[in-house]
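Predict structure. Chain length: 305.
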Amino acid sequence: MRRPGDPFDVLVVGGGLAGLTAAHHAALRGLTVACVDEGGHMGGLVMNVSAIDGYPAMGTVGGAELAAGQLEAILDLGVEIIPDTASALRVDGDVKTVTTGMGDQKAKTVIVASGARLKSLGVPGEESLFGRGVSQCADCDGGFFVDQKVVVVGGGDSALQEALHLADYASEITIVTRGNNLRARQSYVTRAAENPKFSFRWETTVAEIVGSDGVEGVRLVPAGGGDPEDFECTGVFVFVGLEANDGFLPSDIERDENGFVKTDTTFATALDGVYAVGAVRSGYSGQLASAAGEAASVLAGLPAT
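Prediction complete.
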C-alpha cells in the first residue's frame, strides 16, 4: 500500500501499447504504478489503426479496441492515471522525478514509453491546410474523400496501410515516394500493386501543397532535382516517418543520430533506474508485438514487493 507522498514503485511515461503493457506487468507484480499520459486517453498512435497486423490477437482487432481493453485491465489493478504531459525528468539518487502540469511525480523506477509522433513534410501549404485536405489519419478522415483523388506521401508500412484503407473511399490513390521502391511489408505492397486504384510516383518529393480553402493539388519535383509538376488532388496523407517524443528527457540520456533514446540490451538508459521501450527507443523494430515484449522484459527484471 502506497502512502500519500511516497514515490511510486514504477512511473510509466506514455499511454501507448508499450506503456499500457509496462503498467499492466508492473501492477501484476504487486508494485505501485502510475501512468502519465497527455489527456489520459491512452492508446497512442495505435488508436488511429482500424485493423492491426503483426500483433498476437484472436482475429482482427482495431487499435482503439485493443487500447480500451488494456486500459480497463490496468485500472482494475489499481494503476493511477495522471492525465498530463511530462515536461522534465530528473534523478536525485534513488528517486526519479517527472514534472507534469499537475505537479512533480516521484518514483523509484521510470519507464519511458512516450513513443513517437508522425513527421511532417515541412513544405508550404501543409500546416495551413491541415484538416482541410491534409491529414495523417486515413481511418479518421477517409470518409471525406469518397470518389476523390488523393496522394499518400511515403513508402513504409504506415503509408501503405493507410493507403489501403483509403482505397475503400477514394477513386484514385497516388503513392509519392523519394525512393525507387517501397519499404513496406510485402503483403501491403502486393495488395497495392494489384489494386487498379493505385499509381506510383517514384523518386519524387512534394515541394508544396496547393490550395486556398482546401487542397487542390501538390507540386511534385524529382528527388534528384528538376522541373516541378502540378498534380491535381483533393487530399494529401503524410506518412514520412517518426520522430521521438523525447523533449522532456535530460541530455544525460543518450540519443542516436535521429533523436531516439539509446538503451542497453535490458532497455536501460544511461540514467540508473530509467528505462526506455517502444517507439521512443533506438533500434525499436516498429512491430507492436515488440513494443509489448520490451515492456514486459523490463518488468521481469524488477523485484516484486
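Summary: The two ends are 10 Å apart (CA to CA).
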